[in-house]
Amino acid sequence: MIISVNVKENIMKGFPEDFLWGGAIACSQADGAFNEGGKGLSTQDCRYFDAAWDFDTIYKKNAYVSDIRKEDFQKAIQTADTAHYPLRRGIDFYHEYPNDVKLFKELGLKIFRTSICWSRIFPNGDDAEPNEEGLRYYDSLFQALKDNGIKIFATIMHYDIPVNLVVKYGGWKNRKLVDLFARYAEVLFTRYKDIVDYWLPINEINAARFAHWDGISIIADQQEHLDQTVFQSLHHQFLANARAVALSKKIIGKKNVGAMVAAFTIYPGTCDPRDVMQTLTDQRYSNYFYFDVMARGCYPAYMKPLFEKLNVHIQIEDGDEELLRDNTVDFLSFSYYASQIASVDEDFEVTTGNMAGSVYANPYLKKSDFGWSVDNMGLRITLNKLYDRYQLPLFVAENGLGAFDQLEDGTVHDAYRIEYLKNHVEAMRDAIADGVDLIGYTMWGIIDLVACGPLTMDKRYGVIYVDRDNEGNGSNKRYKKDSFHWYKVCIASNGKNI
């Protein structure tokens, strides 16, 4: 009876007064200016797109397989072409950010999540000194945000590393990247310790298993033993994350460094115990493994059978286990877009999801324009499961709806996006009532940008429309969608008026 009353009171109170309503982007998808300001070429600058491709071809080639062939990589690093490499042009946030930040202020954002471009700070990744012009750019961007009352949530690496780290070292399979990442993080922490509020070393670290180029910057078809390369690369990223935590303790002295995964919320396809076991197994391998290492500081026992099955032998050097144990993260964050189901049977409809080319569809859920299951209850479930397991503060780092928007009379009437966001805000409110410690929510992407999967502009997430098409044509002018005005009211009322 007492619990019931408390829950009711929590629902009435809603979100904490200091809840961080925000929005998120990634530098590789928004900035453009790929060869300005002393920036070196990044791995995301090498992803190819042809506007002549039809929908099916786009999704077959790009959307859920971010792998890249050696010959395509070699071609990419030898050209300044932007027509076929849309991440090189983005939405020109590099030049447009002063006006965009004004829109963020009008929207009422409490916090803004963006990534920092490694190749803008260290053009080759192993340069003797950082690029001062790149640092000054972030000086200006961060100060503009602060001047407009917006906190900063900075991601140190969001899928992009300098291409030289692939050419010279082979990507994250090389342990040398741990030291280079730590040096990069040390520069950022020293420069921005007083202005950045939260830090995220590595975006969606579980991407290593699902999107090899995005996650660990390896050329998959050149690996003799792909699984060995993937898990060794992941070990190096775990070490890099721990090194960042250690450096933050030393330089910043605040508990503000988190971990992030792409959350794959998974349900059993049936109540068959085999489906339940399959769900547990998939959940462990897709989500929990990564958080277990970064939040608990050690490899979980359930990974040993998988390593044996895959013939994986991780090279763990002296001091690695202590580093992981002593430098666990302060909070957990995740992206949440959709859910999926697991089953030992194959008698289910196949659909798509974040970083997943084919998953079983849930017959109880609707799908987005791009086949992703729309499941707001899944967000509440995910928040509860993670908080039950780790008892650490949580942050929804990405959540949003990709859709085909139509600009009409200077706006977009996106009632479908408002419905999606409203339902997910309610799910967060309910999770808080359940007892979850939720810090904030940074909607993805607060402004339209080049979609990471298909590399198109027509898969739009923002509450701000950017007039640019898949070929890069358009005025690049910004327009407020109906969802902009909805989110503004939501933020101003702290989630009460939705």
Automatic annotation (TrEMBL):
<keyword id="KW-0378">Hydrolase</keyword>
<dbReference type="Pfam" id="PF00232">
    <property type="entry name" value="Glyco_hydro_1"/>
</dbReference>
<dbReference type="GO" id="GO:0016052">
    <property type="term" value="P:carbohydrate catabolic process"/>
</dbReference>
<dbReference type="InterPro" id="IPR017853">
    <property type="entry name" value="GH"/>
</dbReference>
<comment type="similarity">
    <text>Belongs to the glycosyl hydrolase 1 family.</text>
</comment>
<dbReference type="GO" id="GO:0005829">
    <property type="term" value="C:cytosol"/>
</dbReference>
<dbReference type="InterPro" id="IPR001360">
    <property type="entry name" value="Glyco_hydro_1"/>
</dbReference>
<protein>
    <submittedName>
        <fullName>Glycoside hydrolase family 1 protein</fullName>
    </submittedName>
</protein>
<keyword id="KW-0326">Glycosidase</keyword>
<dbReference type="GO" id="GO:0008422">
    <property type="term" value="F:beta-glucosidase activity"/>
</dbReference>
